[in-house]
Request: fold
Amino acid sequence: MVRIMQRNLHLGYGYTALAYFGITSLWVIFLQQRGLSLVQIGLCESIFHLTSLLSEVPSGMLADRFGYKIVLMGGRVAAIVHAIIMLMATNFWWFALGFVLQAWAYNLQSGTIEALLYDSLAENHATERFPVVTKNMNMIIEIATPVGVLLAGGLIHGHLNVTYLLYALSAGLAIGCILQLHEPFRDQTTPATDAQSLIAISRSAAKWLRQFSALRHLMVFHAAFSALGTMYYYYFQSVMTAKGFSGLLISGILVIR
Reply:
């Protein structure tokens, strides 16, 4: 069992590197090259976040019902379809659909790989290692994301399509990692229906937010601050492109921001 746990950890790290490979981070420039206006690009971003907001809790319930591996594979399939749509779309509505799928790809992996690795540790009574595991995963994300951004910078002028091909390839390789994962044993009994569970979770969250005003204020502040940071990160790409910055300079500035 210890060997299986170690194998799961290594595969989980590999999946993390592939899933968070930031090769499509210059999507604002890509959409501008495909003819979308900044207003349309903003609407695509809004569609992504709205879909993600509405899907976060239900996606977690899917993992409880169908298992971690199925949900992780569903997320990577959504990522591949997103890449195909981005490469083939000819109007705003197709791009909007692509961002819905991208949100689902994000939701289906959000917390799922971490939960799988935690349960793998729990099977071996090694949950005290989980902080180290999460540290390693965060370190991998911090490396994989800027590496992807830097590679994308070299493809800005006429070759950004390649970034979505590489994104689809990385999603396919991630599926290979998922298939080799051992699904930890979990109690699959579900005393409540999905609808009842969703209502219970929503009520519990609302109750906590009412009771803990400090937490509520911190969440609002974090959301507002993150919104400003995200707006700067993505739309400054357009400013730098208009000013004639080279691709590598744009990606370099985004990496060190």
